[in-house]
Specification:
about 70% helix, about 210 residues, mainly alpha
């Protein structure tokens, strides 16, 4: 009488590797949150620098262009779904992440006010693609891991959204915070770092 070992299902081809996807998701959400925190301050600094030179640059231009960030979300999710279906979630997610890196690279050269709407539109498009493709990617797991995958992705969103602005605040106000640390004013430094007290300095273009 021969005994047969129970057959195991082979790994599902094309499934997402959560140990890779989740850390990348944390980094991407952190990066996006740093941008969201920093960009209004950056354009305010550009406006102040232009005024000092006798030029004009609207310091509130980013708030005026919020529509360029939001509008792509009307068609972005549909486009992300169709593109992911055709080319695969990994390619679309990776392409969106790479596309978002162009935003600070372009802004580093202090672009003219006329280019800012295109930058805002590009950030909105790549943000929509990144979010939808990422959510689709974590669904590509065995059925018993879908709950874990969704929970990890939402945790990545939470971690990035909380620590992104904090990281941006530390980077932009590093001189003021470092001065407080050197003085041993740890409670004051913590209050300002966690936004319980207002910062006394204003970020300049060089701080970015």
């Amino acid at each position: 009488m021969s005994s047969r070992l129970p057959q195991q299902d082979p790994p599902t081809p094309g499934t997402a590797r959560l140990p890779v996807v989740v850390p990348v998701a944390v980094i991407s959400f952190f990066y996006a949150a740093v941008l969201e925190y920093s960009l209004p301050l950056y354009f305010s600094a550009l406006g102040a620098a232009a005024a000092a030179r006798g030029d004009s640059f609207p310091s509130d231009i980013w708030s005026q262009l919020a529509k360029y960030q939001v509008t792509p979300w009307i068609v972005g999710p549909i486009a992300a779904g169709l593109l992911a279906r055709r080319y695969g979630e990994r390619i679309i997610w990776s392409g969106a992440l790479l596309g978002q890196t162009l935003v600070p690279l372009v802004l580093a050269f202090e672009p003219s006010a006329g280019l800012i709407p295109l930058v805002a539109l590009w950030q909105g498009i790549t943000g929509a693609l990144m979010w939808i493709a990422g959510i689709s990617l974590v669904q590509m797991v065995p059925l018993e891991k879908k709950g874990l995958a969704n929970g990890l992705m939402m945790t990545a969103l939470g971690v990035g959204s909380v620590f992104g602005p904090l990281g941006g605040r530390v980077l932009l106000y590093r001189s003021e915070l470092w001065a407080l640390a050197q003085q041993g004013a740890w409670s004051t430094m913590a209050s300002r770092m966690f936004n319980f007290a207002a910062m006394e300095s204003t970020p300049l273009v060089a701080d970015f």
